[in-house]
Amino acid sequence: MPKIILMMSVSLDGFFEGPNREIDWHLVDEELHAHFNEEIRNMGALLSGRVTYELMAAFWPTADKDPDSPPTMVEFARIWRSIPKVVFSRTLERAEWHTTIVPEVVPESIRELKERSLGDLGLGGAELAAEFMRHGLVDEFRVYVHPVLLGRGRRLFSETDTMTRLRLVESRPFGNGVVLLRYERADPDTADTAGSGTEAEADVGTEGAEVGDGGNTA
Q1: Helices in the chain by DSSP H: which ranges?
Q2: Would you put residue 99 in left (φ > 0), alpha (ψ -120 to 50) or beta?
Q3: What SS3 class is residue 23?
């Protein structure tokens, strides 16, 4: 069964954006970018909110046309153009590059999408991720911890009244100091309900734009 995988970059003190929504502190070198390409290439689709999609669509469709783009960016541009994408938005009227617009998160529809998918589904955007988590739809968390303390910004995990138990399945350091922490839900077959354990959140950084941002369904 394919999984819904939340991928996000965070600072050591838990922020995914700076106080002015800056992400220039992300350390994405060729090694890390090649890792992102490998992970996303094998996915069945990318799920995001409007903000994330518009950020990506403004940069990646033509990123491989820039003669100064490194090979990893050229490769990711081609991956992004071809991979199926689902954007959750009530205001976006048109989207290109193999993109489907869905007005809201309907758990039954998401589960059907997961069952039909030919690969795992990559989830990006903290607000959209929080909505998925409320419905118990996130199966795995890939948190890329960057070696920086921001002090202020937007925290990846907002306060909730529930708890989610996780199991660490991989930790991987990269040469630039970023560390991947990969967790699975300890109770993957148990649907979340009020008062029971639920999840956590996470974005995959790529130079010039993010695979996950603070996008929601607006």
Answers
A1: 30-41, 50-57, 71-82, 107-116, 126-134
A2: beta
A3: coil
**Is the CB of residue 47 less than 8 Å from the CB of residue 4?**
yes
137 near 110, Cβ under 8 Å?
yes
Helix, strand, or coil (residue 194): coil
| CA–CA gap between residue 109 and residue 78 (Å, rounded) | 28
Q: What is the pLDDT along the chain (218 residues), one digit of tens a residue?
A: 899 999 999 999 999 999 998 999 999 999 999 999 999 999 999 999 988 898 899 999 999 999 999 999 999 999 999 999 999 999 988 888 999 999 999 999 999 999 999 999 999 888 898 999 999 999 999 999 999 999 999 988 878 888 889 999 999 999 999 999 999 998 755 444 333 333 333 333 333 334 334 444 55
3-state SS of the chain: helix, strand, coil percent to 5?
Answer: 25, 25, 50
Q: Show Cβ contacts of residue 70 under 8 Å, excluding neighbours closer than 6 positions.
A: 30, 33
Please check whether residue 122 is in contact with residue 132, taking contact to mean a CB–CB distance below 8 angstroms: no
Closest CA to 60 of 46, 49, 76, 45: 76
pTM: 0.82
Q: Give CA–CA dist 183/143, Å, rounded.
A: 8
